[in-house]
């Protein structure tokens, strides 16, 4: 029986890097992101499990923990992407590894967007409609909703693995193409754009209404409203910086491929798409912004555990009661 997992294929010209120097730069950026994100996400994961014990807290912490898991999935793909770029290929020359990497990238993207969106929607209902019964509040009582989200993601990601396709030749019709291939290609693109554009519209709606709520609020806990604004704005930053540019580049790439423009224009579109795809890897570095703005307890605990020198400690009065005040200060520090 032929060993499929070890059988490389001869990559076509569409899979080769058009500009080796530029792709070496992409590889360097990918390695830098991996080097910075690995200890960051490892420390966050350690904090959620051993310090916060997220399963005993509210559902928001469970959502944030799953967001960490999504970032960890992305980290597994980055060394492979950097290796391919360095060797002058846009993807692995092993078909199984290529499809597995695409599956993990799509799964990470879907999970990150899903949990970021759910967190923002929850904050929207808590601030704008605090007393209204809604589906999100009902679901928050069941932490298993996170498991349901993970179970729904693979069926949307399977099309990246069940069909052979060139690196960027989706919808570039050939004579031997079948209806099934066309359907799978279309499904992949629909999933790609839907999981970015629809949540972005939802996040924009939540952000605008939370900001309007803060402006109309004259009395009450404005600090809570400001934290909510910071949260949704941080999510918008992640979307606008990581996901939207990649989606726009993908749209341009499809237009160029379908219209069968000149080869130089296609290469420019491919290079731009790959570069913005590398930029999307930054979400594993920006997601900690969401953790900090979503939970002041998490921010305080993180800095006190990993960067204690940045935490301001209460000053000790220089008077006769210094001996009395020293003990509670030390006990609070521990």
TrEMBL record:
Q: Where in the cell is it found?
A: Membrane
Topology versus the membrane: Multi-pass membrane protein
* Alphabetized PROSITE patterns for the sequence: G_PROTEIN_RECEP_F1_1, G_PROTEIN_RECEP_F1_2
A Pfam family (short name) is 7tm_1
CC per GO annotation: membrane
Keyword presence, tRNA processing:
no
Q: Does the keyword Lyase apply?
A: no
Q: Where is the G-protein coupled receptors family 1 profile domain?
A: 40-291
Could you list this entry's UniProt keywords, alphabetically sorted. Answer: G-protein coupled receptor, Membrane, Receptor, Transducer, Transmembrane, Transmembrane helix
Record's family? Belongs to the G-protein coupled receptor 1 family.
| GO terms of molecular function | G protein-coupled receptor activity
Bilayer-crossing residues are 25-50, 62-82, 102-121, 142-162, 190-208, 229-256
Put simply, this protein is called: 12-(S)-hydroxy-5,8,10,14-eicosatetraenoic acid receptor
């Amino acid at each position: 029986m032929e060993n499929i997992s070890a059988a490389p294929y001869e990559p076509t010209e569409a899979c080769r890097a058009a500009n080796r120097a530029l792709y070496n730069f992409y590889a360097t950026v990918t390695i830098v992101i991996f080097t910075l994100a690995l200890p960051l996400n490892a420390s966050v994961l350690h904090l959620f499990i051993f310090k916060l014990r997220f399963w005993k807290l509210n559902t928001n912490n469970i959502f944030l923990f799953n967001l960490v898991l999504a970032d960890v999935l992305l980290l597994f793909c980055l060394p492979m992407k950097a290796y391919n770029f360095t060797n002058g290929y846009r993807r692995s020359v092993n078909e199984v590894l290529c499809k597995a990497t695409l599956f993990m990238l799509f799964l990470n993207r879907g999970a990150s967007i899903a949990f970021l969106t759910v967190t923002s929607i929850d904050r929207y209902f808590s601030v704008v409609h605090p007393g209204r019964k809604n589906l999100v509040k009902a679901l928050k009582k069941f932490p298993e909703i996170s498991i349901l989200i993970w179970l729904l993601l693979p069926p949307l990601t399977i099309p990246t693995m069940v069909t052979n396709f060139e690196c960027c030749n989706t919808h570039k019709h050939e004579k031997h193409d079948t209806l099934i291939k066309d359907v799978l290609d279309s499904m992949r693109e629909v999933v790609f754009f839907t999981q970015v554009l629809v949540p972005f519209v939802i996040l924009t709606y939540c952000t605008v209404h939370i900001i309007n709520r803060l402006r109309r609020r004259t009395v009450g806990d404005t600090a809570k409203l400001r934290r909510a604004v910071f949260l949704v704005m941080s999510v918008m930053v992640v979307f606008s910086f990581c996901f939207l540019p990649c989606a726009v580049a993908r749209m341009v790439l499809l237009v160029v491929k379908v219209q069968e423009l000149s080869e130089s224009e296609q290469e420019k579109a491919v290079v731009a798409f790959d570069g913005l795809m590398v930029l999307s890897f930054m979400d594993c570095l920006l997601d900690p912004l969401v953790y900090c703005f979503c939970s002041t307890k998490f921010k305080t605990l993180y800095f006190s555990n990993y960067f204690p020198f940045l935490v301001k400690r209460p000053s000790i009065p220089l008077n006769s009661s210094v001996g009395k005040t020293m003990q509670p200060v030390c006990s609070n520090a521990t």
